Amino acid sequence: MLRNIWYFGIASRDVAVGRLVHREICGQPIVFGRTSTGEVFALRDNCPHRGAPLSAGRIRGDEVECCYHGWKFDRHGCCTAIPALVEDDPVDLGKITVASFPVRERQGMIWIWFGDGDGADIAAPEVPDVGEGAPQIVHALEFPVNIDHAVVGLIDPAHTPHVHESWWWRRPGERRDKEKHFAPSPLGFDMTSHRASSNSKIYRLLGGTPEVQIAFALPGIRIEHIRAGKNFYCGMTACTPVNENCTLTTHMMWWSMPWLTLLKPLAMPFVRSFLGQDQAVFEKQAQGLRWDPALRLTGQPDQQAKWYFRLKNEWERSTAAGKPFQNPLTETTLRWRT
Ligand code: FES
Ligand SMILES: [Fe+2]
Fold this sequence. Notes:
Rieske Iron-sulfur Protein; Naphthalene 1,2-dioxygenase Alpha Subunit, Chain A, domain 1; binds fe (ii) ion
């Protein structure tokens, strides 16, 4: 798991004022909360007194109160009250803290920083065209594999005709030669703008000739941006490591077409079915990975996976050396048949 990077934490809509929400991220217990003035915070979900999860407590005023003995913490993780102490007890509350994590909230998403400092020098991922708008659809699934397998699955063109074969996406057995151009970006690579592939029926619904751009960035963020005439559609998939054996994959979608908003209830079963296909195959893969197979990345269909590992190695190397990250990739064209 990479350090010194922003991970997708949770969708804004899941952290209402006055609520505490538990998540496990990078093997750490995290509690997300929102103060009465709307600021989001993230603390280690583990009371430093006897270890009760803070998420099992409540927010009183702008402070988190533990469910066990009522110790209180502010949003920076500083202890502000221990109710069992008599007034002149000399305990120094200033020495009692629970770890807090920097967070950033934009476009209906809350990002959490794992690493040194506060992440101010590195931008959290952003979706084009949507302004500050929150996604119209958020759908999260846990895949029983580590983040590397989840990311490799996300940027893997070759699984599409096998795993996502369905009447509304593409016809069974239909394959065409594809050629895509790639260019490095600050934290990853972009499949540069191209016309939507004519064997994906769903793109035709957008009207006009859709132009598609797909961006991939560390630690495991894929943004698909489709523009057709005045309309756009944006999809973000964010992989967040839960722990070594599990990855939360959150799919978020934004669009400009009012008719699609009206059709949203009808679209949801398709979204669930499409992502359920990925989940089913990850469950099968997890069974096979128990035998610790030697794995291979082969040919141009697996080139993006190779780039992911190269970017990751370079990120780790530059972080360890305290140097700025330099993207090691160069522009190139890849060909495959899907
Ligand atoms: S365990 Fe949290 S206050 Fe005691
Ligand atoms: Fe897939």
